[in-house]
Amino acid sequence: MRELALHILDIAENSISAGADQIKISVNEDFLNDLLTITVEDNGKGMDAETLEKITDPFITSRTTRQVGLGIPFFKAAAEACDGTFQIESEVGAGTKVASVFKHSHIDRMPLGDITGTLQTLIIGTPEVNWVFEYVVDQNCFVFDDQPIKETLDGVPLSEPAVMKFIREMINEGIQDVRQKVSSTI
Fold first, then answer.
1. d(CA 93, CA 175)
2. Are 136 and 28 in contact (CB under 8 A)?
3. Farthest-apart Cα atoms in the chain, separation
4. Rounded-to-integer distance, Cα 33 and Cα 70, Å
5. CB of 78 within 8 A of CB of 100?
């Protein structure tokens, strides 16, 4: 994968497959400590200890469409290749939390990529899921929660072009506002 947003998409798809109806994606750019942390947390079916122990093996997958599961092993490898770490916590019936930490300035760290497009795809493609996105740069934070939007729309599909545009602009503006606050303090 060429950008971290695609890793996020893959991990979020795992959460959807696990039956999650609440998924939180966090991206934290900590320039002060030279770290980039990406977390995907869900309330899906979770994994038992045996599965959790094997989950970073590319030849272990719960998918029936293919015999290998490369998403988690690749995400782990990407973090570790950039002087980072990977952690996965899971509990049966309670969900899973995947977190990768990268050295932000590492020359081999992939760019974040089109996080807005990734989020828009997830939100519109799975309207039954409550999506929360948190973007933090140093101490500045933007939080997007699609639940209030869904309540306001009262049944209007998220796939309506005006709604899609609104969601994209809201996420883009939130990210840009956080980045501007940081650049204005430098």
1. 33
2. yes
3. 50
4. 29
5. yes
Question: Do the beta carbons of residue 7 and residue 78 sit within 8 Å?
Answer: yes
pLDDT of residue 63: 47
Q: How many other C-beta atoms lie within 10 A of the C-beta of residue 50?
A: 8
Please name the fold of domain 4-185: Heat Shock Protein 90 (3.30.565)
Is the pLDDT at 68 greater than 90, yes or no?
A: no
> CB under 8 Å to 65, separation ≥6 — which residues?
none
In the chain the first and final C-alpha atoms are separated, in Å, by 32
pLDDT in tens, 126-162: 999 999 999 999 989 999 999 999 999 999 999 999 9
pTM: 0.91
User: Residue 138 burial by CB count (10 A; 0-12/13-18/19+): exposed, middle or buried?
Assistant: middle
Q: What is the pLDDT of residues 91-131, one digit of tens each?
A: 999 999 999 999 999 999 999 999 999 999 999 999 999 99
- Average pLDDT of the chain to the nearest whole number: 91
